[in-house]
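Action item from last meeting closed. Structure (99 res):
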């Protein structure tokens, strides 16, 4: 059985630093190593609040009702959908390590 490398999020297409990935648009073009390290640290420690703050700054579209840049809309997501939204940012961050 083939492993799903995107964890249920369809393959992506990139255009000018903005990625469409399973209905998510994530733009990390403004990130430096500092932001990448912070994202990894928050992910490893399970600091969802800080991950959401960072995701709000880079996610412009998601496949859920509401606006991905509003706290209130994140608060209304079921946990599984929150996980998929955070994973979309993680998958985009992983592209920094692909040549």
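Sequence:
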């Amino acid at each position: 059985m083939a492993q799903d490398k995107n964890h249920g999020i369809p393959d992506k297409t990139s255009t000018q630093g903005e990625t469409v990935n399973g209905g998510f648009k994530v733009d990390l073009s403004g990130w430096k190593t500092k932001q990448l390290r912070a994202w990894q640290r928050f992910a490893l420690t399970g600091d969802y609040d800080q991950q959401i703050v960072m995701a709000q700054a880079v996610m412009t579209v998601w496949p859920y009702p509401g606006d991905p840049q509003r706290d209130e809309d994140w608060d209304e997501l079921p946990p599984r959908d929150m996980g998929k939204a955070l994973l979309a940012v993680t998958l985009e961050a992983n592209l920094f390590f692909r040549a």
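Note appended to the action item: The helical segments are 33-45, 48-58, 71-75, 79-94.
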